[in-house]
Amino acid sequence: MTPKELPLPAEMWEQIPAPIQAAIGVRVESYEQRIAVLAAEVAALREQLTQTSQNSSRPPSMDGPHGKR
Q1: What is the mean pLDDT of residues 42-58?
Q2: Dist. CA 58–CA 51, nearest whole Å
Q3: What's the longest Cα–Cα distance across the chain?
Q4: What CA–CA distance (Å, rounded) separates 42 from 8?
Q5: Which position has the higher pLDDT, 42 or 69?
Q6: Using one digit for the tens of pLDDT, what is the confidence trace for 6-37?
Q7: How far is 32 from 10, CA to CA, in rounded Å?
Q8: Phi, psi of 47 (to 5 degrees)
Q9: Distance between CA atoms of 67 and 69, rounded to whole angstroms?
């Protein structure tokens, strides 16, 4: 990990043994990957929320009672 990417202040990070630093690095990387996947999923779901029969291939009956006609 570069100093800019450290999960802790540099002076604290340097006190942690190298094997523990490596384990933390692996864990942080896995969390970052999971966050990216979840962020993409949220974006896709938000896009679905804005779909209506006017701007997609959905039938008008899927718009619900509050849909714009």
Answers
A1: 84
A2: 8
A3: 64
A4: 28
A5: 42
A6: 888 989 999 999 999 999 999 999 999 999 99
A7: 20
A8: -65, -40
A9: 6
The pTM score is: 0.66
Looking at the chain, list the stretches that DSSP marks H as alpha helix, in order from N- to C-terminal side.
10-13, 18-49
Q: Are 26 and 1 in contact (CB under 8 A)?
A: no
Q: How far apart are CA 46 and CA 40, in angstroms?
A: 10
Query: Which residue has better confidence, 39 or 1?
Result: 39
**Position 64, amino acid:** G
**Which of these, 40, 44, 41, 49, lies nearest to 58 by C-alpha position?**
49
pLDDT of residue 23: 95
Q: How far apart are CA 53 and CA 61, in angstroms?
A: 8
* Structure-block tokens of residue 6: 């450290």
Residue 4, amino acid: K
